[in-house]
Every structure is written in structure tokens, then in C-alpha cells.
Write a structure and sequence with these properties.
elongated; mainly alpha; about 70% helix
Length: about 400
């Protein structure tokens, strides 16, 4: 049985990058929407934020005054917005990766015997309990560093850094809420490392590419899909940065302009991390492009010579050139060569980078709006969108 027929019978391999011990634990605890569904986001938020707020409000009711953590914008943003966004970003990445794997198998880009070991290894790493336990331990250590003042006071920890006494709301935050958010963050980053591993392994395979594919990536354009999933992660990090910088702006009077270099550094780093795995396909696409260019150049040369001999050198007087299949074929050759010329050396385009930029910029808009008059903000946005047109 041929490899193509075998792939047709078995079908694309089911793959999920979001599974693992943590998700199975939530399923056993009935904290997921269904047996194999995603976590119930509102329950995770309630577990992290509910007791924290109850403890803080109880303290206020007893006449002790509002705890600093209750007034810390970054704390509420992290738990009420950050956790749901992380859950959404995880589902986005999972769908994009699943779709890419489906197209990889369904398109017959490589023999199944070469692809299966890569995803077998990725699934073993995804399901390794030791890795997720290590991530959870790092999250717990971060909470303890926050509790004992080992972390320098910044906008992200403004409310915590001012408290000298250990209260229930503070303990809950550093032992449950903060570690939960950090674990979800680290777990998402681990999944992106897994996808990076998969992409790097794929780039070393003898893939069946065709440079005339309309995606301008020799048929491998589907590999850029997970970049949009990464944009969801960038949105989470940018939201945390905006809340931290907002805390510093409100409490210390720091100008928003002071954070501009850090923001642009963050955007550049995010773009590099998002597209770096796909840079491994430069050699693959280079070979595909120039292999096809050489073939089409030879074929086109042979065709135009025959066309010239038939219609230029010895065309019969009674035969009409207009509307003949020969002209249409000549035009098709030109379109194919033009498509080859547009084939990129990387399987992503400017729109993918733009998605990272937009995801990083959106959370910053409220921060900028609080420090910039509305008419000035509209003017700046207009110039950015219209390119300074009058």
C-alpha cells in the first residue's frame, strides 16, 4: 500500500497542544465544560479573586481600613482580565496548531512515517508530569518571593510591597491567586516552546513543496496560523504591563512617555519570538522557489519560441490570433512566473507581524487616554491610521 493511500485511509492525526496533566486534573475535578472540554474560566477566576476580595472587604467592615491590595489596579487586572485572556489565548493556540497539523497531514507534505515520530515526541513532552510540576513549583516560588519581599517593589506589586503585616488577603494572593496566574502563564509559554520544537523538526524534513502555491509560501502558509494564537499571549502580557504602568502613573506620577522605550522593546521581542521558529524554513522555501523558477524558465523559453515561430514568423494570413488558446497559455505562463517571483523566503507575512503589534497596542490605549486629552489622542490615532494625510 502506498504512503499516499495509507494517509488517505488513516486521515490526519488528531493533535492538541493544550492537553496535559493540568487539564486532566481539572476534568477529574469537574472544572471543565465537558469531559474533554476547556476549563471553566469563571470558576478559576472565582477561586483566585473571590476569597481575596472577601478577605479585603471583611477587613474594611471590621474598621481596619482598605488594604493596599484592594487598591492595586494590577492585582485585579491580573485576576479578572488576565486569567480569562490566558484561557482564550490557549484555545486560540490550540485551534491554530490543530489546524496546521491537519493540513500538514492532509496535504501530503511528508510521509506519515516521518511525521508521526515528531508528534509522538511532542505529546510525550506535553503529558510529562514532571514538567508541569516544575512550572507549578516556579509559580509557588514566585509567590513566596513576593511574600517575603525578595521581589523589588514595582507597579505590578505596588499593593503588596506596602504591607508589613501578613493578612488573609495577602496570604491568599501570594499562595493561590498569584501562583495560579503565573502557572497558567508559564504553561502557555511551555506550549509555545513545544510548537517551536515541532516547527524546527518539520523544517528538517524533505517536505513536498510547490512554489506556485497562491499562499506565497510554497504551500506552507498554514504554518503561520499559530502566530495569531501567539498574539493572544502578547495581549495578556501587554494588559499586565499596562496595568502595572498605570499603577506607577497613578501613585508615583510617572509620565507615560517614560514607558515608551520599554513598550517598543516588548513589541520587538514579541515579534521575534513569534516568527523565529518559522525562520528555519528559509532554506526550504529558497530551494522551492529557485527550483521552480529554473523549471518554469526552461518551459517558458521553449513555449515562447514555439509561439514565435507559429504566430510571428510563419502565421497564416487567414488564421486569427485573437482568442486562441495559445495566447491564453502564454498569459498563464506569465501569471505563474509572476506568482513564483512573489514567493517569500519565510512562511509568514506583514499581516502576522501586524497582529502582534495590534495585540500589544490595544491594552495601552486606556493608559494613554488617561494622560492625553481626547482631541490630542484622536489626532495621534488619525495620523497613525491615515499616515499624516490632510
Amino acid at each position: 500500500m502506498s504512503a499516499e493511500l495509507e494517509r488517505g485511509i488513516q486521515g490526519p492525526r488528531p493533535f492538541s497542544i493544550a492537553r496535559g496533566p493540568y487539564l486532566r486534573l481539572l476534568q477529574r475535578a469537574h472544572l471543565t465544560r465537558s469531559k474533554d472540554g476547556p476549563p471553566r474560566t469563571w470558576l478559576l477566576v472565582l477561586i483566585a479573586w473571590g476569597p481575596l476580595m472577601l478577605g479585603a472587604l471583611l477587613r474594611v467592615a471590621l474598621g481596619h481600613g482598605p488594604p493596599p491590595i484592594l487598591l492595586d489596579l494590577s492585582v485585579h487586572t491580573r485576576l479578572l482580565i488576565g486569567i480569562p485572556l490566558l484561557m482564550l489565548a490557549e484555545r486560540m493556540l490550540d485551534r491554530r496548531c490543530r489546524s496546521a497539523v491537519h493540513q500538514l497531514y492532509d496535504g501530503g507534505f511528508a510521509d506519515r512515517a516521518l511525521l508521526d515520530p515528531i508528534f509522538d515526541r511532542a505529546e510525550r513532552l506535553r503529558d510529562d508530569r514532571r514538567i508541569e510540576l516544575a512550572l507549578f513549583a516556579l509559580a509557588l516560588l514566585g509567590g513566596q518571593a513576593l511574600l517575603w519581599g525578595l521581589v523589588a517593589p514595582t507597579g505590578a506589586f505596588a499593593g503588596i510591597a506596602k504591607e508589613s503585616e501578613i493578612t488573609f488577603d495577602r496570604l491568599w494572593y501570594v499562595t493561590v491567586a498569584w501562583p495560579l496566574f503565573q502557572f497558567l502563564l508559564l504553561r502557555w509559554a511551555w506550549h509555545w516552546l513545544l510548537w517551536t520544537y515541532i516547527v524546527l523538526r518539520l523544517s528538517r524534513l524533505p517536505l513536498v513543496t510547490i512554489a506556485t502555491h497562491p499562499d506565497q509560501a510554497a504551500g506552507l502558509g498554514f504554518l503561520r496560523g499559530p502566530i495569531n494564537g501567539f498574539a493572544g499571549f502578547v495581549l495578556v502580557i501587554s494588559t499586565m504591563l499596562a496595568s502595572a504602568w498605570g499603577t506607577q502613573t497613578l501613585e508615583r506620577g510617572i509620565s507615560v512617555r517614560a514607558f515608551v522605550p520599554s513598550f517598543f522593546t516588548f513589541v520587538v521581542v514579541a515579534m521575534v519570538i513569534a516568527v523565529a521558529p518559522l525562520l528555519s524554513f528559509i532554506q526550504v522555501l529558497y530551494r522551492a522557489r529557485y527550483r521552480e523558477l529554473a523549471r518554469y524558465d526552461a518551459l517558458a523559453l521553449d513555449y515562447v519560441r514555439k509561439f514565435d515561430r507559429k504566430w510571428v514568423e510563419s502565421r497564416p494570413r487567414d488564421e486569427q490570433l485573437l482568442g486562441t488558446p495559445d495566447v491564453r497559455s502564454l498569459d498563464d505562463f506569465g501569471g505563474a512566473l509572476e506568482r513564483l517571483d512573489k514567493t517569500r523566503l519565510v512562511p509568514f507575512g506583514p499581516r502576522n507581524l501586524l497582529s502582534i503589534w495590534v495585540a500589544a497596542a490595544i491594552p495601552m490605549l486606556p493608559l494613554v487616554a488617561t494622560t492625553m486629552p481626547l482631541d490630542e489622542l484622536v489626532e495621534h490615532v488619525g495620523h497613525a491610521v491615515l499616515g499624516g494625510l490632510p
